[in-house]
Structure formats: structure tokens, C-alpha cells
Amino acid sequence: MSTADESSPVEGSNSIDECELITRLDEFSSYLRVRQSLSKKTVDQHRCMVRAFLTEVELLEPEPSDAWAHKERMMDQGYSNSHINNTMKAVEYYFDYLGRGDELATSERRNLPRKRTEPNPLTADEVREILGTAKTYRDTAIFRVLVSSGIRKSELANLDIEDVNLERRRLTIHEGKGNKDRTAVISSECADAISAYLLRREDAETDALFLSRYGNRLTPNGVYQLVKRTVARTDIERNVKVHTFRATFAQRLKENGADIYRIKELLGHDDIRSTMVYLRMEPDELGREHDKYYVDY
């Protein structure tokens, strides 16, 4: 989510002085970064959501009832449960920053159920079609990174050249989800694709691995748009997102016999339940697994 220009007036806000609002948001951002150890991306998202909340209630010292009303209003306006949960988490942090976190009732802290969709990984033919449709060395390298490492679009966009070790086929992921650094593994074909791209990469004043057409760091939205444009040129008719490559990576590992705990580590998950969301097991496969490991009694 992009943050609004905080130097512009807040439409409809007559009760909050703009300078006071920005000062308060600056203090809140520092609290999130220092006291909560959140990544800059998460801090920016929470700041944006709290700004919208404070602007709506026109108070810098809101009451718990204001938080509840804000949640209900988002539900009435049809926001996704995921967005509402993220917003209320930001509001919860704001009350904690005020030293009033215990004032929020349990009902206000309870998350709405998130809609879970079945994983829909790409087939081998679909992956080959997408790779064959990629127009440039950069695009080919990006798709090979996505499908061979399973990293997220934000993690890919944040890669610097120094984060790539082509000889060992390793990527260093800085401040991934959960504000954690980790190592991702890529295939030899992916390493070759990155090498070919780097030989042709234009000089730029940024250390970013992947550049936009303007010579700046490619953004997560730029990765999304690349996937959207490329898939549109193929014969693939279903919806393919950046996250589809992550699901494809996990599913291929499972099909080739990888242990779920190793898949968990390669995906960078803390909780194995997150890994389970990516893995699909057919009824016949369950039967084979039962017969393979069950001991007769």
C-alpha cells in the first residue's frame, strides 16, 4: 500500500492540526521501528492505516469505541477481511504506543477469518510457456528466480547485486516477511539467466539487481505488472499471480519428495501451518502415503 503525501491537507479534517498529526505519526513510526522492531515496509503500511483512522475520527487520542466503529465501517464498505485485520493491527499498535493497549476489548483485537483459496500451481508446460514468452534477459531472470526459489515479489524487488552468489546459487533475503533475513536457493538455470542479464544490465546509480525501464529499482508492483503482461501474451486463461510461482515452487518440491519441514525452511515460514496452505495432496496420493508408511497391526 502506498502512503499518501503527508504534506497535503487532510480532506475533511477540521479537528486535527496537520503539523500535530505528522508529528504524532513520526513518533508512532519511531515506536514501531525501535520498540516493535518492524520492517520499514510494515511501518509505512501501519502509518498509512493509522493516518486514515485518525483522519476519520478527527482525534489524536481516540477512544476504543472509535476503533470499533472504524472496524464496522470498513466491514460495511466491503473491505476484505485481510485489509480490515491489518488495519486493526495498526490501530492496536497505536493504542499500545499511547500506553492504552489494555483499553481495547478482546472483540476489537479478534481477527476476522481470512478467505483461504486452494493452491493452484502452474504446470510444467505453463512454466515453459511463460519463460518462452519473456521478452528480455531481465524478464527471463526474474521468472526463473520466482519459480526456482519461491521468494515473494517484495523480496525479489529488494534484492541487490551483492545479495547474489551465482557460484553457490544463493540469494540473501534481507528483512523478508516477519522482518527476518534468510537465504534462498536458486537453480543452475536461474544462475545462468541472472548472469546473462547482468552482462547486459545497464549501468545505474543503484545497487538494485533488477531495474525498471527507467533505470530505477524495480518495485513489487512492477513485478506484478510484469507477470500480468507476460501471462496475457500466453494461452494460459486462468488467473496467474506472482504468488502462483511460490505455490508452484512448493508443490514441485513436494512432488519430488521433499520433506515438508525442508519446504517450510525454503519458503521462509515460521509456522508449518503456513506451509500447508501451499501444498495440495490428492486422495490417491494420500492412499499411497498411507500404504507406504503404515505398519500393519
Automatic annotation (TrEMBL):
Top-level taxonomic group: Archaea
Residue span, Tyr recombinase domain: 117-291
Listed name of the protein: Integrase/recombinase XerD
Biological process, per Gene Ontology: DNA integration; DNA recombination
Matches recorded under Pfam families: Phage_integrase (PF00589)
InterPro entries cross-referenced by the UniProt entry: CB, DNA_brk_join_enz, Integrase-like_cat_sf, Integrase_catalytic, Integrase_recombinase_N, Tyrosine_recombinase_XerCD
Sorted UniProt keywords: DNA integration, DNA recombination, DNA-binding
Domain Core-binding (CB): start-end pairs: 19-99
